[in-house]
Amino acid sequence: MTQRNLFLLPGDGIGQETMAEVRKIIDYMNAEQGAGFTTDEGLVGGSAYDAHGVAITDADMEKALAADAVLFGAVGGPKWDAVPYEVRPEAGLLRLRKDLELFANLRPAICYPALAAASSLKPELVEGLDILIVRELTGGVYFGEPKTITDLGNGQKRAIDTQVYDTYEIERIASVAFELARTRKNTVCSMEKRNVMKSGVLWNQVVTETHKAKYPDVKLEHMLADAGGMQLVRAPKQFDVIVTDNLFGDMLSDVAAMLTGSLGMLPSASLGAPDAKTGKRKAMYEPVHGSAPDIAGQGIANPIAMIASFAMCLRYSFNMVKEADNLEKAIANVLDKGIRTGDIMAEGCTKVGTTEMGAAILAEF
Amino acid sequence: MTQRNLFLLPGDGIGQETMAEVRKIIDYMNAEQGAGFTTDEGLVGGSAYDAHGVAITDADMEKALAADAVLFGAVGGPKWDAVPYEVRPEAGLLRLRKDLELFANLRPAICYPALAAASSLKPELVEGLDILIVRELTGGVYFGEPKTITDLGNGQKRAIDTQVYDTYEIERIASVAFELARTRKNTVCSMEKRNVMKSGVLWNQVVTETHKAKYPDVKLEHMLADAGGMQLVRAPKQFDVIVTDNLFGDMLSDVAAMLTGSLGMLPSASLGAPDAKTGKRKAMYEPVHGSAPDIAGQGIANPIAMIASFAMCLRYSFNMVKEADNLEKAIANVLDKGIRTGDIMAEGCTKVGTTEMGAAILAEF
Ligand SMILES: CC(C)[C@H](C(=O)O)[C@@H](O)C(=O)O
Ligand SMILES: CC(C)[C@H](C(=O)O)[C@@H](O)C(=O)O
């Protein structure tokens, strides 16, 4: 029987509660469908810091590296605002991305029909919205050196961050975007600031060359990242796949997520390169939302983004396309029935907590 | 009589047409109000490149440095997409900002009541919106060194951009934000990515210290820049003054501008430090919109952002508060009367061109 090895990192805040609902789906798939998932669990973020003084231990990193896929909840919270920079909760997430070489971050911004009214945009602008943001995740200003704060004397300090991109880094993320576009509306919009940044100039060149050499059938457009932010707000449906760097991707994917009115619903996948021998990619799946410390532990968090992240895991790590489709359909059905957690509550709907929402989705699955 | 020395740089595309309408207002103020404006004019961007092979000449830079204020139109267009990086149109704008040391960029995002319906957001979320984004303009990744593309051999290139911030740069822009907040709703939100960038860590520290030392009466909040982008889209009216760095300011001010539905209407001011002797600040005023090459030369561009930029010039460079108020009121009146250029046209309104719009505002002034 196929062995499918998952490593769970629920992390902090609502990460615990929402991961619990995924665990039930895994158990169900093992019991009813013989899915053969094995799971192990570790600590990341503030919970790892509290237990071990680091944002993730080397032992847990080993397990993440060995797993077929990692499921990640969320990290951070005011409790750890004052811990040293090197061991802050986010450092665990960044180490996972870097050490697993998860260079391709896929962030779908989908507007669930049942939730279009929840968007701050006019419903006609977001109904049916389906954008895929492909964000470079292991390069740029997140990891470039030097990254320092120096005391200059005289009460002056100097902070430096460095944005670095090499040709191959841009080429491989562009290829992921073009490949995915072929499975969608066949259109890629590349965003950078070539009018100000040298990395934007190189980004633009390499995307253009990759397109010409390998994907001439895909429609390619270029947009300055600031104009891209504007266009996302003005007319988001003009986009299919957006490919952009680590920092612009951070900003733009958050704006896009908010447009959908479904922030608590959006999953993401972070993928590495296919292994030369096995063709398998390292992968981590996580909700776009954060740890929401204000509502943690109350049993009211929306588990949908975490469950939808598991659906992406089924699709991208295990090629379980039918199961992924079914799980996504189960989510849509539950929403259509008017079952809602507090964050997406609307008039005439039934308000439920985290476990009821998880159970409702499992019942439709 | 007071001498008031203006240097006009209409630039490319619709910059020419929109600046012409400001010139009429200047002539009117000289003739009817004895305002004593003298004007000189130069070339910037693509038009400077076509004439002189650079994005701005040293001679024009001298004039900009000597003037009491610079009025700037817009630069760029597809015609100059392939010119060398160092002399691309934007280089003229960036040199002006840097050599005049215009470190404080003020970008109001105001929703004119008559235009609330034009926003892509639900009207109740933007009606009465009045945000002031204070963007650092002479530091960060725009100007930090190294800023290079290097050939690594093997067909690989490496692009590097460097974000650099010193304590004094953050302190002075924070002070501008706090001072301005005192004239408004007394609230500042500072945005950075301290969870990823060292410059974000220093930014957060220095803003906090400046607040404590000099502006404890102002309400200060901190937000991660990605969350800030989200909140701008979700509930923009929560903000009063936002202070942020050069690159985040570029992105966030464009998103904020788009929210208002009034992109063609929004002005900006870029200010230097007050002169130690005279107290005067170097200053440049420019619309937030670009050169719009697609509609240039057709006489249909909206001149309101350029005229509103001149109103900011009256206010900040010449302390002509009454005149600035009147000019801004004239703009609002014309909109209330339903007079519209094509970009803001709505049912039941009267569509006019650039010169008619300029004339209508002058008639109300
Ligand atoms: C938590 C933080 C380090 C992270 C990032 O900036 O990448 C988050 O904002 C995200 O988008 O996943
Ligand atoms: C034209 C460009 C260099 C400029 C910038 O990036 O600052 C523009 O986008 C702006 O916001 O004024």
Short description:
2 copies of one chain form a homodimer. With 365 residues, chain A is α/β, with parallel strands linked by helices.
Describe the structure.
The structure is a homodimer of 365-residue chains. Chain A has helices spanning 15-33, 46-52, 58-66, 89-99, 123-126, 167-182, 198-214, 225-234, 246-259, 304-318, 321-336, 354-364; strands at 4-11, 37-41, 69-74, 104-110, 130-136, 144-153, 156-166, 187-192, 219-224, 241-244, 267-274, 281-287, 339-340, 350-351. Chain A has 365 residues and is an alpha/beta fold. In chain A, the strands form three sheets. A ten-stranded mixed sheet of chain A has the order 2-1-3-12-11-4-5-10-8-9, with helices on both faces. In chain A, strands 6-7 form a two-stranded antiparallel sheet. A two-stranded parallel sheet of chain A has the order 13-14. Chain A folds into two domains: 1-111 and 263-365, Isopropylmalate Dehydrogenase (3-Layer(aba) Sandwich); 130-259, Isopropylmalate Dehydrogenase (3-Layer(aba) Sandwich), CATH 3.40.718. The interface between A and B is large, with 58 and 58 residues. The complex binds 3-isopropylmalic acid (2 copies). One 3-isopropylmalic acid sits between chains A (90, 93, 250) and B (195-196, 226).
